Amino acid sequence: MNTTSSTSTASPPKAAPPPVRAGSGPWQLARAELRRRTSVKLSLAVVAFFALMTVAAPLISALGGWGPEEFDKTAVDPYLGGLPIGPLGGVSAEHWLGVEPVTGRDLFARVVHGAQVSLLIAFSATAIVVVAGTAAGIVAGYFGGRVDTVLSRLMDLTMSFPSLIFMIAMMSVARDVNRIVLMTAVIGLFGWPGIARVVRGQTLSLKHREYVDAARVGGSGPWRILARDILPGVAGPVIAYTTLIVPGMIATEAALSYLGVGVRPPTPSWGQMIAESVAYYDTDPMYFVVPSLCLFLTVLAFTLLGDALRDILDPRGSGT
């Protein structure tokens, strides 16, 4: 009597698929992707360092024992045109990064407070640009028609205006106003059309999606749809674009201060310090190197971080 073993013909059991982790949405996947990139980690460290410097500037500068406007005539040599005494621009235990020529002001305190001024203007102007640009782009893309035409022409007009010349003229004429507030407003005034165009294009592709049509059929008003359905859909590109705006804002503030129409002395800013150090780059190069290096590292960190976020959150917009 022939018997067949059922175990000899049975196929091995298939491996179960890996369980899907709860909360593995697009934002969690984006965070995981960012953690893998070494350039992002370094950029975040630099950004966090200068952000902390901006928030705690008085406390950090107090560690060095000098204020940004205190003079130390003993640290400069009056017989050599006020050049710092000591190597590397007067670097010592008393002055960690050296001193300014002629005045003897502590360079560490000036750089720290300069970071507070420069980054405060850049972040505030970026906030204005992002809020105004996102609002204009969503409204233009969703409502279309005459609203889109008016806002699009306003974007074109603002982008075609010679913004740098207007900024220089405004900063030169308006003398008896708060320079930080004026610079923030003027820089933000000309920055919003770029992000508005990006958001408008994203809104045009989202407003006919099924979930938006369902919300419209369900009785939701246009502003509720914009806030609950459209805005979350454009959040990724807006975040990526924001990190790319910040270095441009920092550079714009530095350029205006370098041209002499930015923050007034003795209030320090990186651009102003670089402009003043040009006259001493051959005799006291540290005076030029320190603020320039801070500006370079900040712009580079935000640029690398913005490129990584754009690749992850807006891959279609980063393709060539």
Architecture per CATH nomenclature, i.e. the level-2 architecture of the domain at 112-318: Orthogonal Bundle
Query: Which stretches are low in confidence, meaning pLDDT under 50 for 5 or more residues running?
Result: 1-24
Mean pLDDT: 84
Question: What is the CATH homology-level superfamily of the domain at 112-318?
Answer: MetI-like
The CATH topology of the domain at 112-318 is MetI-like fold
By secondary-structure content and strand pairing, the structural class works out as mainly alpha
Report the radius of gyration as a whole number of Å: 27 Å
Tally of extended strands?
Answer: 2
Strand arrangement in the largest pleated sheet: 1-2
Given the C-alpha coordinates, what overall shape results? elongated
- What's the helix-strand series? HHHHEEHHHHHHHHHH
Helix content: 55-70%
The percent range for strand residues is under 5%
C-alpha end-to-end distance: 73 Å
Task: Describe the structure using short key phrases.
320 residues, mainly alpha, MetI-like fold, two-stranded antiparallel ribbon, elongated, 2 strands
